[in-house]
Specification:
Chain A contains no helices and 11 strands. Chain B is mainly β. Helices cover about 0% and strands about 45% of the residues of chain B. Chain B contains no helices and 10 strands. In chain B, strands 2, 4, 5, 8, 9 and 10 form a 6-stranded mixed beta sheet that branches. The chains are: A mainly beta, B mainly beta. Chains A and B meet through strand 4, strand 5, strand 9 and strand 10 of A and strand 5 and strand 9 of B.
């Protein structure tokens, strides 16, 4: 059974204070790892897909990286508008038609 | 439309009643997913449709839950004889291709179901 664990559960940062969110996974053959952002009362918004260890993707202040066991979402000089819950999901060779999600990290960036 | 559309946005129902939740996927997307998100929990997979193939129903929690997709587009999730534990946000997502293409899924805003 695919498992995804995200840490920390919640993170509070000051504006400009860089940090990283972690997504650890256990799957039988990773086919893809997906990062989403979810604002309160809204559906998840797609950010990145990573397919193989060593891959990196960037978008504005966000950078996602992938190893064989985990992924990191690095947030550089965050702004209050980056406050949201960040979700990690995996697709594997066993649960091929589904995305298995972690419980998310709730990020709050204070001005 | 520009994105995945779900209706209603909110639904309050009495215990024991049946409810129908609707999802309009992004035009041209062949794959459609239903997920459930409960307070403090991660997204729980319910069902997956891909084109004309038989749906993957492995995530449906009980036989009170069913879903259909008509004409490869609009989908309806039906919950019969609702229970209080069915209260959650039901999210629909669509993807331009099936799982073999390994593409991302785009989510709607969800339907918040409250069973009283």
């Amino acid at each position: 059974e695919d498992q995804v664990t995200q840490s920390p559960e919640a993170l509070r940062l000051q504006e400009g204070e860089s940090s990283s969110l972690n997504c650890s996974y256990t799957v039988s053959g990773l086919r893809g790892l997906f990062w989403y952002r979810q604002d309160p009362g809204k559906g998840p918004e797609f950010l990145f897909t990573l397919y193989s260890a060593g891959e990196e993707k960037e978008k504005e202040r966000l950078k996602a990286t992938l190893t064989k066991k985990e992924s990191f979402l690095h947030i550089t000089a965050p702004k209050p508008e980056d406050s949201a819950t960040y979700l990690c999901a995996v697709r594997s060779n066993s649960g091929y038609s589904t995305l298995t999600f972690g419980k998310g990290t709730m990020l709050l960036v204070s001005p | 439309g520009a994105g995945v559309s779900q209706s209603p946005s909110n639904k309050v129902t009495e215990k024991g009643k049946d409810v129908e939740l609707r999802c309009d996927p992004i035009s041209g997307h062949t794959a459609l997913y239903w997920y459930r998100q409960s307070l403090g929990q991660g997204l729980e997979f319910l069902i997956y449709f891909q084109g004309n193939s038989a749906p993957d129903k492995s995530g449906l929690p009980s036989d009170r839950f069913s879903a259909e997709r008509t004409g490869g587009s609009v989908s309806t999730l039906t919950i019969q004889r609702t229970q209080q534990e069915d209260s959650a946000v039901y999210l629909c997502a669509s993807s331009p291709q099936g799982w073999r293409a390994n593409t991302e899924a785009f989510f709607g805003q969800g339907t918040r179901l409250t069973v009283v």
